Amino acid sequence: MIQLFHVTKKYGPGAPALSDVSLALEKGEFAFLTGPSGAGKTTLLRLIFRYEVPTSGQVIVNNENVATMRHRRIPHLRRQIGVVFQDFKLLPRKTVFENVAYATKVVGLAPREQRARTYQMLEMLGLNHRLHNYPEQVSGGEQQRVAIARALVNRPLILLADEPTGNLDPELSREIMGLFKDINSHGTTVLIATHDRDLIQRMARRVIALEHGALMPAGAS
Ligand SMILES: Nc1ncnc2c1ncn2[C@@H]1O[C@H](COP(=O)(O)OP(=O)(O)OP(=O)(O)O)[C@@H](O)[C@H]1O
Ligand SMILES: [Mg+2]
Known about the structure:
The chain is of the alpha/beta class and 221 residues long. It has a domain of 154 residues: Rossmann fold (3-Layer(aba) Sandwich), CATH 3.40.50.300. It contains seven helices and ten strands. The protein is globular, with a radius of gyration of 17 Å. The chain starts with a strand and ends in a 6-residue tail after the last strand. The model has no long low-confidence stretch (mean pLDDT 93). The structure holds adenosine-5'-triphosphate and magnesium ion (MG). The site of adenosine-5'-triphosphate has 11 residues, from α1.
């Protein structure tokens, strides 16, 4: 589903953010991406949905080379991928409901289906009482859940989540992980960047570890 071949990413002179990273994630896999701050986790996720392009090497997503993909193919790629950003990226002038509904509108769902799925997702994430609030009116943990609802509402083939439990208390983060597992059991490939060692231990899934932009051997972390 996701393959990286000898991927190097440099943002400028100096040490690359990623250097010579090769890895593969099968369809339906559930993996954690870990490593210290600055190791390259966010960069790796960004390459997968073509928010960045590699300096060298190839990124293949669902059999397409995203690095050389034509611009008009990018929306198609992004429709297959749900992303929870490290800083949420909610639209400040839209309500909680509208932030999630907007994602369903962009992919062209019928209005009735847009509403139904949006309500369902927001209910699942315990945000029923926040539907008509704006992002700045809700807590950090609630904003994070809105971002998660938005990433999942289109039932993506791939879910990329960047520190999705960073602002959540332990109980809520367990619930969110349960939700991700559930999504994964329906076939979505899941890749989660996190520092949270407890979470990783508890989940007992594959761990991809980065350090200074390089992949660590499996089990080394
Ligand atoms: N847009 C950018 N321009 C220049 N340098 C960048 C950019 N984004 C990231 N970097 C640099 O690339 C390296 C990897 O950053 P990245 O954000 O991928 O790390 P990370 O593992 O996600 O860190 P964190 O755990 O703090 O989120 C860092 O040295 C960072 O300063
Ligand atoms: Mg990051």
